[in-house]
User: Fold these one by one.
Assistant:
Number 1:
Amino acid sequence: MVSSILAKDQNVLIVGAGLFGLSTALHLAQDGYNNITVIDKESLPNSCSAGNDLNKIVRAEYEDPFYTGLALNAIQEWQTPFWSAYYRSTGYLLTTSLNAPQKACDTIKKSFASIKDHPSIPPGSFSAVDNANDIKEYVPMLVGKMEGWSGYFNRYAGYVRAAKALKYTEMMCLKLGVKFVTGDNGSTKPTHTVLCVGAYIGTLLPSITTQVIAKSWAVAHIQLSPNEAAGMKGCPVVNCRDLGFFFEPDDDTGLIKLSANGAGYTNTVSAAGKSASVPICVNDGMPKEDEELIRRLIQETMPQFSGKELLNKFICWCGDTSDSNYIIDFVPDTEGLLVVAGDSGHAFKMLPVAGKWVERALEKGRQSIERWKWKNTTKGSHEISWRVGKVKDIKDVELSTSKGQV
Ligand SMILES: Cc1cc2nc3c(=O)[nH]c(=O)nc-3n(C[C@H](O)[C@H](O)[C@H](O)COP(=O)(O)OP(=O)(O)OC[C@H]3O[C@@H](n4cnc5c(N)ncnc54)[C@H](O)[C@@H]3O)c2cc1C
């Protein structure tokens, strides 16, 4: 056991109540730390949080085996009684469509190779799919043509009911005595501050913007009737790398969440000779080109719903690093300030386990995992190995809103 330099009654202030902030508060409180405060701009469900959505994919395949191991730990946790009400083990179909860029096909091959014979995964969890008929064998709810689709089906995966899981985590934190403060009225004097503000980190800590770039992706929902929802019940998560992904209908609302894949959109602003991407709330709209991708995804897989209106269009922000590694480290030249950033669009699945990583760094007073260290030299990059397409600025694309194009 590592001795801790953090006393149980030390005042720890966590800024940001997304997955990292809440998971950190939960782990600290569960381990007996009794002076934890979480502050956020808004109360949950929080429109600025990347996790405030119906659902997020939970899968363990990564190009990098380090994250495969972490995600497998997380999946085990999701299946325990503490978390299982929020996890759905539906399976996960990962494919490319006809004429997909080579990069998308290569990414799938790397994901498959990283996981198919992993000793921690039940044997027989993976099946290659080479055409639409193969896909329909594993995902019979998909009745579309899916011409030229191929990839694999993973039974050891699913999704989490994201916003509900955050709310639950907050409730468990409250039970353990964690204090929550909303807005600007925090008057705590912390010995340690943990910044977990997701894509907003550059607005509080401009020095990190050489490592973390705020980027966004489009999300929308379609409404199913109770009969239609019953027909799609149990549908695995479907992710077509060059189009987008979707989930089974939400139990409570019958909404299917769909998101477009791509390299992401920045919102670059300049001040005092420096420029950085900062999140901008778009709560009624999405890039028109993403709406087209989502429409193609629906047409290819579930054409019976292609006439449905896209509802609740919005863009969702995360903080991208060039190698998709998180940053969980003390900020150089500061006293007790730890930053948790660079979620790189793949952190939500880690909700049950991420807080433990932050707790370890706080207790040791340093980060010993090389890849999670603050990097003075790394330049943020738009070239991400597993993302398809070209990064664009949100100001340069046409938006489609519920009222029409803008
Ligand atoms: C389109 C999209 C799809 C995704 N899909 C998946 C997926 O399928 N599976 C998966 O595992 N991950 C997925 N992710 C990634 C996942 O959503 C994020 O990694 C995760 O939610 C990031 O959590 P966070 O705690 O870092 O930030 P957030 O959840 O964004 O939380 C940050 C919090 O900080 C608060 N805040 C901001 N500024 C301040 C301030 N100045 N003062 C106080 N509070 C502040 C905000 O209000 C917010 O509550 C996806 C991301 C996107 C963008």
Note: The two ends are 58 Å apart (CA to CA).
Number 2:
Amino acid sequence: MEKILELKELKTWYSTSAGIAKAVDGVSFSLDKNQTLGVVGESGCGKSVTALSVMRLVPMPPGYFAGGEILWKGKNLLTIPEEEMRRLRGNEISMIFQEPMSSLNPVFTCGAQIMEQILVHRPVTQSEAKARSVELLHLVGIPNPLERFSSYPHELSGGMRQRVMIAMALSCNPQLLIADEPTTALDVTVQAQILDLIGTLQADTGMSVMLITHDFGVVAELCQEVIVMYASRVVEKGRVDQIFSNPMHPYTRGLLNSIPRLGSRNERLHVIEGNVPSAINLPDGCRFAGRCPFAEAQCREKQPLLELCEAGHEVACWKAIDSTYADEIKSRLMQNII
Ligand SMILES: Nc1ncnc2c1ncn2[C@@H]1O[C@H](COP(=O)(O)OP(=O)(O)OP(=O)(O)O)[C@@H](O)[C@H]1O
Ligand SMILES: [Mg+2]
């Protein structure tokens, strides 16, 4: 497998009047060529800031990189000049944002915005860029693409706008597509269509995909690898089958338990009690300790780091790596006590 992206101990912090918000605080993971990585975790865990960091689109100030590296094909994106970053962005690496409306410009037609993206990065003529834009609109499943080329964003439905965003993101055949909750604002049928589309495009083009989502169902369908984020850090990572069949972190299990099961409609939906700690005021020890049914004194004192628990599967939990407790966790997992 060829590593295309590697984050090493990335720290993206914000200076705020209330203190330093450690939005991403020592995040490490890598993504192979042709692979789809799911990034899951509750709201405020640092998923979007991680993605924006890779694009180097974190507003600075108040944001700043407090440490670490982002290696793109071995090159540290945090130290290359902005001009070089601009050549990569929207070209080799592109992103579909969480809010499609705020990233499409309301005063230009959809077609003009896709064309612009192509013209910035490719040595093509206006008419070639137009032809490619119409082709992209067709590719992402927009009916009457030639007509839609001249539509303004507000003239389209949410699902269609999201497709335009995807067309824009794909316009230069990226090697990495970052999709930040690409379907949250859409209704279920459209969600399924858009996710199918991303899956098909990934298979056709061989690009790598980093897919941020709240939804484990989406992960199961599209991803090979998954990282679970909690309070600005990665608490577990592994192959999708490992995370689903053998979740080691109590937080991961809590997330998995909150998926409604088929035929269990009357059962109370399991949610993890409590809240994610604020990025401004993170606890010293394990950041999940305050919500964890297994937490002991050592968990509150010292932060656990990711450790291998089986080949390809890492967890940051004092209990999970201790074999006696690992057994206890497993048996409690079976009984659904967590
Ligand atoms: N401009 C900012 N100034 C201060 N703190 C910020 C800023 N942007 C983000 N943060 C903080 O960074 C943390 C991570 O935010 P992020 O948007 O990455 O979460 P997320 O995992 O994407 O959540 P969601 O699922 O809701 O999209 C949050 O605690 C947030 O308050
Ligand atoms: Mg987000």
Note: The chain has one domain: 1-92+174-259+268-337.
